[in-house]
Amino acid sequence: MKTVKNSRQELIIRLIKENNISTQEELTNLVRKSGFEATQATCSRDIKELGIIKITMPNNTTKYAVLDRTGDVAPGRLLAVFANSLVSVKAAMNIIVIKTLPGMAQAAASALDSIHLENCVGTIAGDDTVFVAATGINEAEALVKTIKDMMDTGVDLAGKF
Description:
- By secondary structure, the chain is of the alpha+beta class.
- It is built from 6 helices and 6 strands; from the N terminus they run H-H-H-E-E-H-E-E-H-E-E-H.
């Protein structure tokens, strides 16, 4: 039997996948319009639990995105591992070079692949380096900003799991 929290979180995932939502206020309003009682603090907790991230688009706007990886690892944990394994990220034309802690490139690439960013064509991982192909130079720069934002939030997420 589903709890109200589970139903609300399923709704949040669906809303984020179907809409370009850039603020918690927008998300909270949509959740309320769908018949749930929710505050911005409730939606903020749900965002963290679900591993939802904010990504930067090539036009420099932002929106929320859902990690699609499910199974043994909770999405938030996957995001925390990803963010905490990164050392640096730089763009070189439409290729992004991510440096990770030794042995963490495969996990970082897998986490990035699970986000399914529309302008990310694919990843290749070695031991401590990930190459990410973006669809263009502007898209690569936006992706670098998104990854740097995830690095910054990784410290916050690490203690939650």
